[in-house]
Specification:
The chain is α/β, with parallel strands linked by helices. The chain has a domain of 171 residues. It contains 15 helices and 5 strands. It has a 5-stranded mixed sheet, sandwiched between helices. Helix 7 packs antiparallel against helix 9 and helix 10 packs antiparallel against helix 11. It is globular, with a radius of gyration of 22 Å.
């Protein structure tokens, strides 16, 4: 299993989404669940591949959750199709516009490496949502353009649509989510995201009902690591007592591997907390050095500092002394 790329993701929801769904074999089930059946049947899901890079705005780089996949078609051929897979735990009124900006960035990058192209690859945006109350914002860019009903109707053929597919977990029952044709770990993630805001005692009862899924996850390749990732999430959103009570329920039935996954989850979370504490100290030090050297820190530099890993923070701190201007500190 390739390493997770969740270091720059700020919330436990985002981290769980990326850790599980950046694996193509797990993402495939979710993508197939929301696509029109006729389209999904024409795609070669064994070719699904995660594409490198992120396409978010610079000021969002510390909390991006976008995943870009490419897939081939059954029987081969020259058609290129991409999925832009996004996660939202809150309603963004301008999500359709944001998705549109990401799509343009993807096309721009594609054109940079396909000089002379006269057509563009298809991009299908999909948003996985699990916030309270259900999704309430437009899912199509044309709905955001303020013309009034009369003008909008007359101009409809001229307005950009850029519609995204929405998977609102609150609109599906637990039974429906469990019935999806996908890996057990992906089902467990969808259920966990859906119920993340339940009271701790309610969350504990919900997760305990998924013991069959937990067993299926453990039996799958890399299952112990996947279960540890989900249990770490449960620990973050539900608290330590929830995880301890689940350990008491799961271990007698599922055995020592379930206990190992839960112990691993707690250990990873503690280590992440210690590492985050060290990085916060580095961020504070670098910010103070920048203020002393340049008299202040612009917003774009603050965003970079907040999103950086330990290696970047140390490298930038070394540059402060000799940098002629603040841009030199962050130069690639």
């Amino acid at each position: 299993m390739p390493p997770s790329s969740t270091a720059a993701v700020s919330s436990p929801h985002d981290a769980l989404f990326k850790a599980i769904f950046e694996q193509p074999d797990r993402a495939a089930g979710e993508l197939q669940a929301v696509l029109p059946t006729a389209l999904a049947a024409q795609l070669d899901w064994s070719s699904l591949a995660l594409q490198p890079g992120s396409f978010v705005d610079p000021d969002l780089v510390g909390r991006h959750t976008d995943l870009l996949f490419q897939v081939g078609v059954v029987g081969g051929g020259s058609v290129q199709l991409f999925f832009l897979f996004e996660h939202q735990s809150t309603v963004d009124p301008l999500m359709a516009f944001r998705v549109g900006r990401y799509m343009v960035r993807i096309w721009e990058r594609w054109l940079d490496t396909n000089k002379g192209a006269r057509v563009l690859p298809a991009i299908i945006p999909i948003v996985l949502f699990h916030g309270p109350g259900g999704w309430s914002a437009p899912t199509e860019l044309s709905e955001l353009i303020d013309l009034g009903p009369t003008l909008a109707a007359a101009a409809a053929p001229l307005l950009p649509r850029l519609r995204f597919l929405l998977d609102d977990l609150s609109a599906s029952s637990d039974t429906e989510l469990r019935a999806r044709a996908m890996e057990a770990s992906a089902k467990l993630v969808l259920l966990s995201l859906k119920h993340a805001r339940d009271r701790p005692d309610e969350l504990e009862e919900r997760v305990a009902e998924w013991i069959d899924l937990v067993g299926d996850v453990l039996a799958a390749p890399h299952g112990l690591q996947a279960l540890a990732t989900v249990m770490r999430y449960i620990l973050e959103v539900g608290g330590p007592t929830v995880l301890e009570h689940l350990r008491e329920r799961f271990v007698p039935v599922l055995g020592p591997r379930a206990e190992e996954a839960m112990i691993t989850a707690a250990q990873v979370l503690r280590e992440e907390g210690r590492q985050e504490g060290r990085q916060e100290g580095q961020r504070d030090l670098l910010t103070r050095l920048l203020i002393v050297r340049f008299g202040g820190v612009p917003a774009w530099a603050t965003a970079k500092v907040q999103a950086a890993d330990a290696g970047s923070l140390g490298r930038w701190a070394e540059r402060v002394v000799l940098a002629a201007q603040i841009e030199d500190v962050f130069a690639e």
